[in-house]
Design brief:
Blueprint (H helix, E strand, L loop, with lengths): L1 H16 L4 E9 L14 E7 L5 E6 L19 E8 L5 E8 L9 E9 L5 E10 L7
Parallel strand pairs: 1-7
Antiparallel strand pairs: 1-4, 2-3, 2-5, 5-6, 6-7
Length: 142
């Protein structure tokens, strides 16, 4: 009987300390109209910012190609118009992903040539959404 009580207590303690990861698959699509005419070929860096449901900063990172993690080049597919990145967190609640693309290795505002954002509800263990990056009309840094 004592062993059963100890096992139950451990199970309750273990369950109370567990957290569940939430996964987000974000497919970034470049708008062909506002980022057309060779602009896509000039993208040198993709940068993501993550905000919580209150709009507070959570994280930021460069979206790099997993086949070449030291490169800052955006991991766009062979057609150079879309690619997917994954993000995981122990936090619950909706997350807003903002993605900016740059025509230079610098992430200064003058080098940003496009951006977009999407808010993804955290309803499931794995949550997915498309994020469209629109050109901002900037000539960039090059």
């Amino acid at each position: 009987m004592r062993g059963l009580g100890l096992a139950t207590a451990l199970a309750v303690l273990g369950a109370a300390g567990c957290s569940e990861y939430r996964y987000f698959d974000v497919t970034v699509k470049l708008d062909p109209v506002t980022l057309g005419n060779g602009v896509v070929g000039g993208i040198q860096r993709c940068h993501a910012t993550v905000l919580n449901a209150k709009g507070d900063f959570v994280d930021e990172f460069d979206i790099s190609d997993p086949r070449n993690p030291s490169s800052l080049a955006c991991p766009l597919g062979p057609n150079r118009t879309e690619g997917t990145f994954e993000y995981s967190t122990l936090s619950s609640g909706d997350l807003t992903f903002k993605v900016s693309v740059y025509d230079n290795a610098n992430t200064t505002p003058a080098c940003e040539i496009g951006n977009g954002q999407v808010t993804i509800p955290s309803k499931e263990t794995t949550n997915a959404a498309d994020l469209t990056v629109m050109g901002n009309g900037s000539d960039g840094c090059t």
